[in-house]
Structure to design on (373 residues):
């Protein structure tokens, strides 16, 4: 049996990026996925300064220099934001030369000693086949679980001319979505997909359980009617549901499965693209500083889940009042522990005392997290 230098389990953005970069270095690669040729349909976006230099600029469908965020007040984010052409991104991560296997992974075994030799790590497939490899990396994402907070969203794609606002909205927590004041909050995400279309999406940032898609649809339709947009029902729809934390840091996992998903935003694609080369090279992605930053971000998720609905806009007003450098430390820099601590303490200091007490208890694991944010 032919043994590949690298076996990648999963061919989503993280797994495909990893396999693509390994092939570019001349490694032999096997990719395992139940539907390896399925086209991606989700919308992916990133901060432009997160993207690696090897990525083709042709994969960017739209870019905005200063997206806007709304809590109780408006803030311009001084950081370039890009939306990918999903099909172009997938095609750019070509897997020419890889061995592609359409099957499910039943189990992954690490290296073990047999006699005086060290057996290679291997993947056991549902079909019964066992595939050894020089390295095996699990990039299958994080399975849903009632114990994990999730992000949900319901969106529609409309002609750009129908969008009555002239701004890209990274987050809009204003309360014109028809939700009861005490109900779990959601925000509007409004971004260009290209020169002609906009994605308008009502999003539950994190919840355990998260808001149902039918509720998000009702809120989106109400919000858009308030802004002069009536949907015809023929618009293309986007549905989103995935865990915002989980995964296991370590050399045998990558992408969301490797805890690279940001627990406070749900973003992971740009991080996977940026770290693919380092992973192929065998570098340690998890020095002590990166583990500490990840722990603080997970604590930040607990804090967010603990806040009552009326305090969510106040929290984000404080966050988006930070300098671009401090926002970046929290949103993007994986091992800038000092920057992370400064960002968190700055937000904390800007909040009223009642919110500080709630956040402090939740961050330390002493408070009871609410269901949704």
């Amino acid at each position: 049996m032919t043994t590949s230098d690298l076996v990648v389990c999963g061919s989503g953005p993280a797994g495909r990026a990893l396999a693509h970069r390994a092939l570019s270095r001349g490694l032999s690669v096997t990719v395992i996925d139940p539907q390896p040729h399925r086209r991606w349909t989700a919308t992916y976006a990133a901060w432009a300064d997160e993207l690696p230099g090897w990525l083709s600029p042709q994969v960017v469908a739209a870019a905005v220099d200063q997206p806007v965020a709304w809590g109780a007040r408006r803030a311009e984010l001084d950081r370039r934001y890009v939306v990918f052409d999903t099909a172009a991104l997938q095609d750019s991560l070509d897997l020419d030369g890889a061995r592609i296997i359409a099957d499910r992974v039943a189990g992954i075994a690490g290296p073990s000693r047999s006699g005086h030799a060290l057996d290679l790590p291997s993947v056991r497939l549902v079909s019964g086949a066992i595939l050894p490899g020089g390295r095996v990396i699990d990039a299958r994402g994080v399975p849903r679980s009632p114990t994990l907070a999730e992000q949900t969203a319901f969106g529609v794609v409309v002609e750009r001319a129908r969008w009555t606002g002239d701004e890209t909205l990274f987050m809009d927590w204003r309360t014109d979505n028809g939700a009861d004041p005490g109900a779990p909050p959601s925000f509007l995400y409004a971004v260009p997909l290209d020169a002609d279309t906009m994605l308008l999406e009502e999003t539950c940032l994190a919840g355990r359980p998260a808001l149902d898609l039918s509720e998000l649809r009702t809120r989106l339709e109400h919000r858009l009617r308030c802004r002069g947009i009536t949907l015809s029902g023929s618009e293309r729809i986007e549905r989103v549901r995935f865990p915002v934390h989980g995964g296991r840091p370590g050399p045998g996992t990558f992408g969301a499965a490797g805890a690279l998903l940001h627990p406070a935003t749900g973003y992971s694609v740009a991080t996977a693209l940026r770290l693919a080369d380092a992973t192929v090279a065998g570098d340690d992605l998890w020095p002590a500083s990166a583990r500490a930053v990840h722990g603080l971000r997970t604590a930040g998720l607990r804090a967010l889940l603990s806040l009552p609905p009326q305090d969510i806009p106040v929290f984000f007003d404080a966050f988006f009042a930070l300098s671009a450098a401090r926002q970046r430390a929290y949103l993007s820099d994986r091992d800038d522990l000092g920057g992370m601590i400064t960002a968190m303490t700055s937000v904390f200091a800007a909040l009223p005392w009642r919110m500080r007490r709630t956040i402090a208890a939740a961050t330390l694991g002493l408070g009871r997290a609410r269901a949704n944010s």
